[in-house]
Design goal:
Length: 679
């Protein structure tokens, strides 16, 4: 955990003055930077440069940490500038001999432009202030709208898009002349084509890479690798070509439908003549194919389409109000269905209920998803409303409105549900209106699931001014893609419950500040994180970063050097099994034991793992027997958790009603040697 104090007094004044000076300087340089970027485009094949810089940024994603953050947005910005150029000017240079140095010049200018925009944003933050959670969320939204293009991992995004659009195939085919679901099929097909070409280019360039001396000076090595990277980005980048002809054969989609679909995904060259700034709407962001007058097209990064697919679908559906209404309804239904399915796979059908209702104020409000186990419950409210462009750009009133819709209302709904459950869950009914009886455990965790990714809302839970009651133990606000990821990684009920309870507690206490769920989950799996309450004027953040989830979900399954095993909580299987036994035999202790056990860092389970291995061994050393005896009398892992291993001769520990005791049953070949047995 890293703790910093917010500056105040003279220190704050100096910081603000410096930020304003830098912002003013950046503002002065911005137009000149755009002119220099345009000059690079004018001097070569602008279309090829755009395709090459896009591939270059995509290759950068393999770099550790956040070195590639914002690079995709800068490539997209350059693409917008290309579509703003006069058509004749672009076509006159199309096909010109590529210049590798121009690519690096462009890359450096885009990086410089991004830094200038960040400085301007910092100056705006100083001028407007961020004294409350709503303003902090608003400024962070504006920042993310400019620089963040990644909405999650393909494994989850694909499921979400398919779940929404599959059931709209006939409607969209009738209204638009193509099926929405086919957009992802087309993107996948063309992505495969580009990967095949990239591999072929890499094979041709490999001999040049092999010629680099192993003991070359570092400067020479950097130069060689830079040339190789530029060569890949230039010669393996997507070309301008007839996509309709190519993909009709690849996808089997009728030519007319495919042509209309690609047309709906296309930004025509010359169609954005006034586009000059990252702050402005760039049509290319949602229609990522550049179209030429002769019908040929350039699709620089089809693999990234799934990150913008839902926004694109809403955009094209807006042409038909009936289709848009059906699309929005399907978004809500799919959000509830997928959240329900994810939790069902973790907790089992017996404990997971969708659309249960209860009486309140003369009505019967429903609970989108209710997890009700004997040891603990989870109440889930799903919000699938679309987050508008003005809200994403940080427009104050739009952000306030969405805060009321997605957070204030959902908190009030969850608080009402929790209150009803705590008062006895009277007249609870399932989605078919049949009486529903649940274990109704006293510990209930509140979760809000949003379909659209709005990380600043998850970080700050801003108050939109319409907040009524709120869950007393905090709320975990999570994007649907992240919920699916967490459920994929934490597949045991104890693991998922403990993580959800922790994330709710973090939001209640206010620390640490978590900007990205994947990073929080990775750190929790590797080391654990704790909920803390920052002191007056303090900001607490995670002190380290984690690439665990990124390495797993972006791995190349064909590369033996990349991780193939799913990340885990690091809790021994025997401990998880013991928690399952607690759920069945003494559920009143399950919540506290689960929270305590899952707060133990993975490395601290080592003595127990060794003792279990030794206890099951045919032959044991004196030292090993000592480890077993110590574990059989109890290993105290936290102030509120003691773990002991027991066998049939020591089974009384299994039945003890100590709330801090977790007993793990083993069957060693010759029985455990207990202290009363002597040495």
């Amino acid at each position: 955990m890293r703790t910093a104090r917010r500056p105040h007094g003279e220190t704050l004044a100096r910081f603000q003055q410096a930020a304003l000076r830098q912002a003013a300087e950046a503002e002065r340089r911005l137009l000149a930077l755009v002119d220099r970027i345009r000059a690079v485009a004018d001097g070569g094949d602008a279309l090829r440069l755009y395709s090459s810089v896009t591939l270059l940024q995509r290759m950068r994603r393999t770099m550790p940490g956040h070195l590639g953050f914002g690079a995709d947005a800068m490539a997209e910005f350059f693409g917008g500038l290309v579509t703003a150029m006069p058509v004749e000017q672009v076509l006159a240079r199309h096909g010109a001999e590529p210049d590798l140095q121009s690519l690096w010049t462009l890359d450096a200018l885009l990086r410089e432009y991004a830094i200038a925009q960040m400085r301007i944003g910092e100056g705006k933050l100083v001028q407007e202030g961020a004294s409350n959670q709503l303003d902090r969320a608003r400024h962070l939204l504006e920042f993310e709208n400019q620089f963040d293009r990644m909405l999650g991992y393909p494994a989850q995004l694909r499921v979400i898009y398919t779940s929404i659009t599959d059931r709209l195939s006939d409607r969209s085919q009738s209204a638009l002349g193509f099926a929405l679901k086919d957009a992802l099929i087309v993107a996948d097909a063309y992505g495969e084509v580009l990967v095949e070409r990239e591999l072929a280019v890499a094979e041709r360039l490999q001999p040049l890479l092999d010629q680099i001396p192993r003991k070359a000076p570092q400067d020479d090595l950097v130069e060689h690798l830079g040339r190789h990277l530029a060569g890949m980005a230039t010669f393996a980048s997507a070309p301008v070509e007839d996509l309709v002809e190519l993909l009709t054969e690849r996808t089997g989609i009728p030519r007319g439908q495919l042509s209309r679909l690609l047309g709906a995904m296309t930004t025509q060259l010359g169609s954005q003549p006034t586009f000059t700034s990252l702050f402005e709407t760039n049509v290319l962001r949602r229609r990522p194919i550049i179209g030429l007058p002769d019908g040929r097209k350039l699709w620089a990064s089809p693999g990234d389409f799934m990150h913008l697919a839902l926004d694109w679908a809403a955009d094209v559906c807006s042409q038909n109000l009936a289709l848009l209404r059906a699309f929005d309804k399907r978004r809500q239904d799919a959000c509830e269905e997928l959240a329900h399915q994810a939790l069902l796979e973790v907790f089992g059908a017996e404990h997971v209920h969708r659309s249960a209702t209860y009486p309140a104020d003369g009505q019967r409000p429903d609970v989108d998803v209710l997890v009700a186990t004997p040891g603990g419950s989870i109440v889930v409210e799903a919000k699938a409303g679309r987050f508008t462009d003005p809200a994403r750009r940080g427009a104050p009133e739009r952000v306030r409105k969405k805060s009321r819709e997605f957070i204030d209302k959902a908190l009030d709904q969850n608080a009402r549900t929790i209150r009803h459950l705590q008062q006895g869950a009277e007249d609870l009914r399932d989605k078919d209106k049949r009486p529903l009886t649940i274990p109704n455990a006293p510990h209930i965790t509140s979760v809000i699931v949003m379909l659209d990714r709005v990380d600043p809302f998850a970080t700050h839970l801003p108050d939109g001014g319409k907040r009524g009651d709120i869950p007393a133990d905090g709320t975990w606000l999570v994007n649907l893609a992240d919920l699916l990821m967490v459920a994929d990684i934490l597949r045991h009920p104890a693991e998922f419950y403990a993580y959800a309870e922790l994330r709710a507690r973090i939001n209640k206490l206010g620390g640490p500040t978590i900007l990205v769920e994947t990073e929080a989950l990775g750190l929790w799996c590797e080391k654990r994180i704790q909920a803390v309450r920052p002191g007056e004027g303090e900001v607490m953040t995670l002190s380290t970063t984690s690439q665990l989830m990124n390495d797993y979900y972006t791995r190349d399954s064909d590369d033996p050097d990349q991780p193939s095993s799913r990340p885990t909580s690091g809790v021994p299987a025997e401990v998880l099994e013991a928690l399952t036994n607690v759920m069945e035999q003494r559920p009143g202790h399950w919540h506290s034991l689960t929270v305590e056990a899952l707060s133990v860092p993975p490395t601290r389970w080592s003595p127990l793992v060794k003792a279990l291995k030794t206890a099951r061994a045919e032959r044991q050393s004196r030292k090993g027997r000592k480890h077993v005896r110590r574990a059989s009398t109890g290993l105290r892992l936290t102030d509120n958790l003691t773990v002991c291993i027991v066998d049939d001769n020591n089974a009384r520990a299994l039945g003890e009603e100590r709330p801090d005791l977790l007993a793990i049953s083993v069957s060693p070949p010759d029985g455990l040697r207990h202290p009363q047995d002597g040495a």
